[in-house]
Amino acid sequence: MTDPKTEGPLLQMRGVTKSFRGARALDDATMTVGRSQIRALIGQNGAGKSTLIKILTGVYRRDGGEVLLDGRPVDFRSTAEAQAGGVVTIYQEVNLVPKLSVAENIFLGRFPKRRGLVDWATMRAGARDALAKLSLDIDVTRPLGSYRVATQQMTAIARAVSLEARLLVLDEPTSSLAEREVETLFGVMRSLRDSGVSMVFVSHRMDELYEICEDVTVLRDGRTVAEEPLASLNQYELVSKMLGRAAEQVASGARAAARPRQQAEPVLAVSGAASAPRLKDASLAVYAGQVQGVAGLLGSGRSELLRSIFGADPLDGGTVVVSSDAAPIRTPREAIAARLAFLSEDRRAEGIVPHLSVRDNLTLALLPKLTRRGIVDRKRQKQIVTDYIARLGIKAQADQPIVELSGGNQQKVLLARWLATEPAVLLLDEPTRGIDVSAKAEILTLVDKLAADGMGVLLVSSELEEVVSACDDVTVLRDGVSVARVDVERLSEESLMAVMASGEAVPSADSAPNKDKSDD
Amino acid sequence: SVDSGGSSEGGAAAGAASPAANCAIATAADPGNSQPAADTPIAENAPKLAQKDTYRVAFSQNANNGAWRIAETQSMQDEAKRLGYQIQVTDAQNNQSKQIQDIRSLIAQKPDALFVAPMTEEIGTVIGEAKSAGIPVFLIDRTVSDSQAKAGTDYVTTIVSDFVQEGKRAAYALAKATGGTGKVIALEGTTGSSSAVDRKKGFEDALKECPGLELVATQDADNQRARAQDITESLLQANPDVTAVYAQGDDMAMGAIAAIRAAGKVPGKDILVVSGDGSKEALQAIVDGTMAANVECNPRFGPKAFEVMKQYAAGDEVPTKILNEDRLFDSSNAGEFVDQAY
Amino acid sequence: MTDLATRPAEVSALRRIDWPTMIRRYGAAAVLALLVIFNIIFTENFLDLRNILFVQLRQAAPTAIVALGMALVIATGGIDLSVGAVVALSGQVTAVFLLDGVPPLVALPIGILVGLAAGLFNGTLVSRFGIQPMIATLVLFTAGRGLAQVVTGGRIQTVNEPIVEFLGLGVIAGLPISVFSLIVITIAIIGVTRFTPAGTKLLAVGGNERAAGLVGIRTKWVKTMAYVVAGGLAGYVGLLELGRIQASDATNAGLNMELDAIAAVAVAGTTLAGGTFSPGRTIIGVLMLRLLQNTLVAHGIPREVAQIAQGLIIVAAIYLLRRSRDAR
Amino acid sequence: MSAATADVATVGHRLALQRRGTVAVLVLVVLLASLRYGDAFYSGINLTSYFDDAVKYSLIALGMTFVIMTGGIDLSVGSVILLAGVAGGLASPYGAVVAVLVGVGTGAAVGAVNGLLIAHSRLEPFVVTLATLLWARGLGLQLADTQTVVYGSGALQSLARDKIFGLTTGFWLMLLLFAIAAVALKYTAWGRTVLAVGDSEESTSLLGVPTRMTKFSVYLLSGALAGLAGVVLGSQTGSVSMDTGVGWELIAVAAVVVGGTLLTGGVGSIGGTLAGLLLLQVIFTIINFENGRGGIEINSYWQNVVRGAFLLVVVLLQTGVGRGRRKAS
Ligand SMILES: Nc1ncnc2c1ncn2[C@@H]1O[C@H](COP(=O)(O)OP(=O)(O)OP(=O)(O)O)[C@@H](O)[C@H]1O
Ligand SMILES: Nc1ncnc2c1ncn2[C@@H]1O[C@H](COP(=O)(O)OP(=O)(O)OP(=O)(O)O)[C@@H](O)[C@H]1O
Ligand SMILES: [Mg+2]
Ligand SMILES: [Mg+2]
């Protein structure tokens, strides 16, 4: 192990600037990465983290500033060049090739060969080895896309690790990983560091940063505002630096008290819902004025549950009753008519319409209501859009294409899309994935307020902390079956973890989820 | 059946030509059909055809659209039916390689005789294959190139019109109608087809003898009515002083007439149109006064084709090239023939 | 360094003329303008109102109408290879009915119905059966023209109906029918896409079909409608073409029109991937390509050379568009 | 995400089924036809003519398969056949080798232009190759002075005349190229990269794999194969006429898709393309034979209708197969 102080830093980025169509994304950004160091790179959504990384690795050309690797100026023009220079990156969105096999994804660009031809056997063995380091044992001949997102993310990591980088850049690798996988990843990162590899780690989860990183670079509005050892800042100070103002309350604390049920009848009652292949038998109820949580391990069927409630996936069995109206919901259209709203977990594939403006994206679900005698009421549309941009603090112009917004701001627009329909029940699937701490707090506060105003909310989140702090009641799914309910009194991360893992209900007055049936 | 001779009418009408004519061809008689060379060899080495009461024959048509080709196919089918023969027709849809494929597929079915209307002159190799299979081939309306297939050996004979002569006759007719002065635009048929190439040659060569007629533009209109109309519109706008149009085919002529009308001029008066094919529509146009003259290119090959086939089966001497006789139609005789036209 | 950073306002002021955007918006229009200027100088009588309206615009109008339909289909991320064949089919069917003595008031709508039905067929294959648009529309591309030939036996049928003559030679408000129709159709399409939700729905389906489905848009219906409208417009153009040559020509009517239309849409700066729609620029694209062709014809350039020029102009146009997009 | 992941899992499977379906339908059609038409259908001249006719389409379909696997399309192949066929024909007096080199070289040159514009300037393949369809044809016509070009060289015709096991050398050459292509797809880095680029070009380039060369190469290959097809055609028919290649690109595209290659790229099969092509072409022979039976005559206008309907039936069957399987799994 070398001492970073004696040898000079591995990477120095100084005074980097970058504009997109006249808008500054980076303005004097600086980042220094020492040897055998894991550096956190943090900032609000849109602060410029991904842009800085993409400049380092040659995806974007910088407008100004310099990049020094090992003290020598470098100017990579493509990811390939960066890789040849020892800089390997895992980009924010999972960027692999879904229809090729897992093995090929790991070896794309450097296939092992025998007599000039691709040596499949060696490749498969190599892939299995690379995945084994991440404690993953899967069929490497299957197409990558047939695995869930977390596995794909782990494959991307396995690929990057096997590339034997000097500098490994990880842009939000953990946003789709569960705790166990995060731990595995951290284990690998530590051993890499011990073998002399430096890393840049981006995450919006503060506790992760403190767990794995030594130093931190804070970006705000495209400028580096702090570069220091992480230990010298506490979480509150760190967030304050990120925001440029005193953080009122970091990560919205647990809600004061349970909201009372306003009505006896649930606004949404689900019983025995099944949807092939992963949802088998799920039951729950959502009451007006409450936030109902759904927890479960990855792949436990949470997303499928929400999708089939909303008519996005076919419901093969069971019933979904909205506001005691027996009419079945078969399509999103009918769901919207029944005053449901659904925020998908996959922003890119199921949320944004990239080249449409923020305005059109925001009012997409509202179009029927904005139409008077066949004509869209542009004035009202404008008013609503202005209103939501202000209310949610969206950093964007109304007529900007949504694709130009940072991830967090896109998410807010999508949330606004559904809020504008004034739903009776809001289905949220991972609403804060990839969202910075302050925006997350804002969104959770908003959810809290919406519930207080009488909306029913069904919230899926992989972040237990979020579930615990936001929900009045949590249904736990396991292998597509609702196995338990945890009510507000017993709600804690530990209790949830225990139930999720064991599938055993915590003893409680009304812990059997199917008991909800008796309500209707 | 093929009527003979147009030259006499041409000659008779020539006297009426304007004395102001400033070139020879404006007053000359219609040059008429060309005659087969006296020394045309006899088909001797082609596969023999047995004499039978009925035959199973095949006909490879190169494209079965447009009135002309349809009339040709119909004529072949009608005549076969009349004679009680079985006929199989393929349509290459304007595609040389499809025609080759068609012919091979026909050879595979071993007909007694094979009639081919070649798409281009260069399908000769497959004609040779028919010879190897022992099937006598008769070419109609176009021929194949000598270098690929030999007349009288690889195929029996070819029954064709003389396109060069057609172009020449059109030029004469045009010169006569215009009195030998004016600006002319020409519309050509399908790029590279021998009819288009030869008619152009005949027309332009003859026109050289008439300096008063200036050819201001030539465009390929692909035998399409709408295309000819578009092109004529554009050309008339760029050359407003045009006084005559030569269209190689009647469809293009009809398009040109429509374009002349759309340009606010009177076809047959402001602008004269001469065309070739001899369709009913064209003859009617002559009767109506919108077209000046038309050089026939008779599509009704059926009777002649089967007659030749029977002669060949009977062992008669068949020349390796048989020329079709085409008439010249103008205001003096169009009315008489319009009802028989295809 | 700091100097630069503190003067962003000035910098952007210098760059006020946003060339890339200008090229994207007005590139085709600029080429069109150049061609017009060239013709004014070098082509006799070009500026004659009769020429502009009754030759140039009238020749372009049918393709432009078809291109508008194509632009709708392309906006959904699809493509329609069958429009040319549908033009032929609708014209032939109408011609046959007219020749059979069916009153024009029945025969003409039937032509449009044929187009709509073809569009429905395409749309159904694409949206219900999930067949890739190019292959789905290849079916009618092949069979449609065949059917048109079957209907008329491959013959050109001359139709001497006053209504057909009116379609071809008639004048409304001083404009040829086809030009007048183009204007009406353009206004209608722009009106509908601007003022009703249809436009946004169309772009949403083309931009992200799954997202559109999740906000309650009937994506299959929207896609089908795009093909139906494109088919209907092609059907109507079939009538116009029938009127133009006063005859039905199954083999040649609408031949290659789909490629002309696609080229125009592309030159207009629309990506074939879907999610964008610009009717005005599509028409300018058609006018530009048509005038180019006519200019070459008028100046006696042989067809094969004209083809080379057309190909090169299309490449040049999309190359400039691409550059302007990159420069953003 | 769930829909997408599910798709990926089944799409390859579905296409594989589709491929087998294509082969099955092909075998079935040929069996039925030989029962109906007897020996004549199997006769040497019919088979050679059928396979020979397939050679040129197969060659462009082979190039098209790789292009489509990258998510692109090459509409220019029909025109390239004309241009290269003309160029090869003009060069044929200088010997067979020269003719082949000139033909393939011309095709490759046009392909390189397409490739540069698409891979380097990142223009849309559909439009670029549409423009090339225009200019390459114009150039071919110009070069030939709009006259049919005759192939002079005798040696070249060995491609069309010499037979091995009853089929022409041209056909065996085509088969050999398909075999090489199949190996290249599965066992070369290039082949795998072609699929990767078609699946997700952005990802592939972010993974540090140069995508430009790969994209360029498929257009180059497609052009070169179309050039070869032009020369083969010239050698088979002894000439190249000016109508050559009109609309052939769509025959190739249809064959590729029927063969189980996804138009959006990322999944594909070389053998499937050959099966798809043979299937779509067999219909011509059948129509001709059916006419010969003298019973119901398939009027030539119906041919296009029949071909369109046949394509429809084939793709509907395939989606039916895909759907049925999807439900079952
Ligand atoms: N391709 C682009 N075109 C236009 N603007 C862009 C582009 N990419 C990024 N931006 C803008 O640059 C800014 C920085 O974006 P970047 O993606 O770097 O943020 P980030 O810090 O990674 O945010 P997040 O935490 O949401 O990932 C944002 O304002 C974004 O809108
Ligand atoms: N085991 C699996 N096999 C295949 N696909 C999976 C699997 N697990 C998850 N997926 C898919 O990946 C998507 C994203 O997965 P994510 O990491 O969000 O898990 P998740 O949302 O916890 O899963 P779920 O919603 O099923 O509990 C899911 O919507 C699902 O469609
Ligand atoms: Mg980012
Ligand atoms: Mg999920």
From TrEMBL, chain A:
GO molecular function, one term: ATP binding
CDD domains linked to this entry: ABC_Carb_Monos_I (cd03216), ABC_Carb_Monos_II (cd03215)
All residue ranges annotated as the ABC transporter domain in the record: 11-246, 262-504
A Pfam family annotated for this UniProt entry: ABC_tran
Taxonomy of the source species: Bacteria, Bacillati, Actinomycetota, Actinomycetes, Micromonosporales
SMART domains: AAA (SM00382)
The protein's name in its UniProt record: Sugar ABC transporter ATP-binding protein
Domain of life: Bacteria
Keywords: ATP-binding, Nucleotide-binding, Repeat, Transport
UniProtKB/TrEMBL annotation, chain C:
A Pfam cross-reference name: BPD_transp_2
Keyword annotations: Cell membrane, Membrane, Transmembrane, Transmembrane helix
Intracellular or extracellular location(s): Cell membrane
Superkingdom: Bacteria
Membrane topology term: Multi-pass membrane protein
Main location class: membrane
Segments passing through the bilayer: 26-43, 63-89, 101-121, 133-154, 166-192, 224-242, 262-284, 304-321
Presence of keyword Disulfide bond: no
Xref: CDD domains: TM_PBP1_transp_AraH_like
Protein name: ABC transporter permease
Organism name: Paractinoplanes lichenicola
From TrEMBL, chain D:
Keyword vocabulary terms for this entry: Cell membrane, Membrane, Transmembrane, Transmembrane helix
Pfam family, one: BPD_transp_2
Residue stretches spanning the membrane: 20-38, 59-88, 94-119, 126-144, 164-185, 216-234, 246-263, 301-321
Membrane topology recorded in Swiss-Prot or TrEMBL: Multi-pass membrane protein
Principal location listed in the UniProt entry: membrane
Record PANTHER family: ABC TRANSPORTER PERMEASE PROTEIN YPHD-RELATED-RELATED, RIBOSE IMPORT PERMEASE PROTEIN RBSC
Name of the protein in question: ABC transporter permease
